[in-house]
Amino acid sequence: MDHSSSGNSGASSDLLVELVETLEANGLGRDSYQLYDSIDVEALDQLVESSASAIDVRVTVEGIHLSITQDGVEVIDKPANIPPQ
Known about the structure:
With 85 residues, this protein is of the alpha+beta class.
């Protein structure tokens, strides 16, 4: 994630792209979910980027468990029935 643009829509766009790319890389097609129905990406980005200490926000999108930190998005766990792409 881009730490230099904290607090603007560019940073939240970077997080959005990273979330989508991570989900797609783990077998979840773009038509399989509505990210904005589950996550307020701008608020999430602001929370992560404005934290003075390490923060780890965990969310689940269609069974894929994600960890979101200042370093980026990582998959914690995913259902066995979703093959990697």
